[in-house]
Amino acid sequence: MYRCRNEISYGHQHSGGLSREIDRLVQKFSSKAGIASPRSSRGEARSCFVRYTKKKHKGKKLIRETKKLLLHLLSKDVQGFINLLGRLGSDILSCLNHSDLSNFSAIRKACEQQKYMFDHDVCSCLDRIVSIFQSYVRPIVRGKAGRKTEYGAKIGVSVVNGFTYIDHLSWDAYNEGSDLMLQIMAYKERFGYYPQEVQADKIYLNKENRKLLKKLGIVCHCPPWGRPKKNPDLEEEKLRRQASSERNSVEATFGTAKRIYRANNIRAKLKETARTWIAACFFAKNLKKFLTGLLCLLLEKTSDCSKFLILLVLVAI
User: Fold this and answer.
1) If you write DSSP's letter for every residue of 129-191 in order, what string do you get?
2) Whether 97 contacts 38, CB under 8 Å
């Protein structure tokens, strides 16, 4: 969904994007305001980036010098755009749409973040922007082999009788352990009572959540804290393995939503549109589950001729 960029390509992208935005605005209003077109740093930034990419060995000194120059050119273009707004006044502001203002705000914030990381020699900051056109997206460190960082929405779901419910959807990087209480309350709001049993991932089973489950009288077959017992209870081990196998339906839900319903290929640009797209993927999955169950129920109560037609519909689904 989002391409992972290093610091150099990231700074080059934003510098070139802002320069193109300035050129577009100047071409639009130069004839009306009678001003000369300000000099853009896009070509200089491109040359700097090309020189960097052609180097076979990119040492720390070269990386830092390239970062410094790209940040300088980016700041120069930002200041030039602000000066342009000051010269033209409210006339140019009235011609900017919401997307233009949002993109420029994201570019200014990204410039400040890059300057902060460069000055403090760090590689991360709070609420880091990775795309000026989707400024709500945050990098999420997962630690997976081959892909340590992912970009996109973090979704907390619960599966009840085969149907999937989205309890929490966020674009920020946060610890999912805090979602358990939220999901239990969402279950109570839907069905009117607390769940009898919860089968959760290990990240949810911290001390605080275990105390909460015990207080509410909710069964959770999770391994106890501390060193494993030398003579474990075989019945408890059997229940724990059974609960773990049943919990696999949640992991299967994510896999099915990604592979079949394209939840891993969200092409919406706006935040709310992307949320709606994700929800529609799980809605289609639930709809297929409902129709399959309905047709199987009809299959039990119909004649042989009708059964053949219902089987054809099931194959089509």
Assistant:
1) -S-SSSTT--EEEEEETTEEEEES-EEEEEEETTEEEEEEEESS---GGGGHHHHHHHHHHHH
2) no
Provide the residue ranges of all domains of the chain, joining segments of one domain with +.
Answer: 7-133, 177-285
CA distance linking residue 220 with residue 197, whole number of Å: 6
Within 13 A of 58's CA, how many CA atoms are on the CB side? 15
Phi, psi of 226 (to 5 degrees): 95, -170
d(CA 201, CA 158): 11
Residue 184 near residue 216 (C-beta atoms within 8 A): yes
> In this structure, which amino acid lies at residue 127?
D
For the four alpha carbons of 7, 78, 17 and 101, in that order, the dihedral sign comes to positive
Across the strands, what pairs with 170? 154
The answer to whether the CB of 88 falls within 8 A of the CB of 29 is yes
**Total-model pTM:** 0.79
Neighbouring CB atoms inside 10 A of 204's CB total 22
CA distances from 309 to 288, 300, 304 (A): 18, 13, 9
CA 79 – CA 294 distance, rounded (Å): 63
- Token pair belonging to 125: 């900051």
- Predicted confidence pLDDT, tens digits, the chain (317 residues): 444 445 556 555 555 555 676 666 666 666 566 666 767 777 888 888 888 888 888 888 888 888 888 888 888 877 877 777 777 776 666 777 788 778 778 888 888 888 898 898 888 888 888 887 888 998 888 777 777 888 888 898 988 888 999 999 999 888 888 889 899 999 999 999 999 888 888 888 888 889 988 899 888 888 777 777 777 777 777 888 887 778 888 888 888 888 999 888 888 889 999 999 999 999 999 999 888 888 777 777 666 556 555 555 555 55
User: What pairing do the DSSP bridges indicate for beta strands 139-144 and 147-151?
Assistant: antiparallel
Longest dimension (CA), the chain: 88
